[in-house]
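New here. Your pick:
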Amino acid sequence: RWRTVPHEEEIVAKLERFAVLPEHRGEGYGTRLVQSVLGDARRAGFDTFLVHAQAHLEDWYEALGFESTGRTFEEVGIPHVEMVRRAEG
C-alpha cells in the first residue's frame, strides 16, 4: 500500500507494509509488488516515493531505484533506513 505523507516540504507517496513469505523470497514477488504500488502512486500524480526500509533490505531497495537519505532509526527494535526514489524523466 501507499499513503501520502509530508517529506522535506512536499507531499510524497510513502510505500509501506510489504512482506513476502520466506519460502517465496527470491522469486520476484517483492519486486513486482513494489513496482505495482509505484505505478498506482504515479497514476495518482506522485513523482516522489518514500520508504522506511529495514536496514538489511537497503541494497534491495537501491536496486529498485531508491536512495538512502542518511536517516536511520529503530522501529520495534529493528534498524531502519529512510529511502527516497524520484520518478524517471
